């Protein structure tokens, strides 16, 4: 049932506030290839098309996708969303156990990830040192867990 082709184009994962229980679903972190393979030279915005009819002719005009991400009560609004934007929000669930090494190893894999939110779960243990080195993140939130250790200011 679980296939390598699952979620090939997935860039924004928001599974917050769902009451999920158990360890973090680490096998998915390795499958989110769209967050890895990014051609920054050919950066474009996500868009949809609005179909219309004018003088009997059918046409379609593009309009940009927009989104709002809320982190710690602060709304970040994006009027346009770059195709290279990626975020993972697993907050406000009941994930437990330690943060697996695969999440700490994102530095080499998900270097286009802009936000990682694991807050308000039941995670325990040390904050993996590798997580403190993810200096490409704009948002990194592990608050309201049972974690120990320091987060570098890097």
Distance from first to last alpha carbon: 40 Å
Which range does the strand content fall in?
35-45%
The H/E string reads: EEHEEEEEEHHEEEE
Mean of pLDDT: 79
Largest sheet: 4 strands, parallel
Q: What share of the residues lie within helices?
A: under 10%
Q: How would you describe the overall organization of this protein?
A:
It is a single chain. This protein has 154 residues and is mostly beta strands. Helix content is 8%, strand content 36%. The protein contains 3 helices and 12 strands. The chain has a 4-stranded parallel beta sheet with strand order 1-7-9-11, with no helix packed on it.
Summarize the structure.
By secondary structure, the protein is mainly β. Helix content is about 10%, strand content about 35%.
Q: Strands, helices and their partners?
A:
Layout: E1 12-14, E2 21-22, H1 26-29, E3 47-54, E4 57-64, E5 67-71, E6 74-78, E7 86-89, E8 94-98, H2 101-104, H3 106-109, E9 113-117, E10 122-126, E11 139-141, E12 146-148
Parallel strand pairs: 1-7, 2-8, 7-9, 8-10, 9-11, 10-12
Antiparallel strand pairs: 3-4, 5-6
């Amino acid at each position: 049932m679980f296939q390598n082709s699952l979620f090939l184009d997935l860039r924004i994962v928001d599974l917050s506030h769902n009451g999920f229980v158990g360890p973090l679903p680490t096998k998915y972190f390795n499958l989110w290839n769209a967050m890895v393979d990014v051609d920054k030279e050919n950066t474009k915005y996500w868009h949809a098309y609005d179909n219309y009819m004018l003088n009997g002719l059918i046409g379609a005009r593009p309009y940009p996708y927009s989104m709002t991400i809320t982190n710690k009560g602060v709304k970040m609004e994006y009027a346009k969303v770059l195709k290279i934007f990626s975020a993972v929000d697993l907050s406000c669930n009941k994930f437990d156990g330690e943060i697996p090494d695969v999440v700490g190893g994102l530095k080499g894999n998900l270097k286009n990830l802009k936000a990682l939110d694991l807050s308000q779960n039941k995670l325990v243990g040390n904050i993996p040192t590798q997580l403190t080195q993810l200096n490409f993140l704009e948002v990194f939130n592990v608050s309201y867990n049972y974690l120990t250790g320091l987060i570098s200011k890097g």
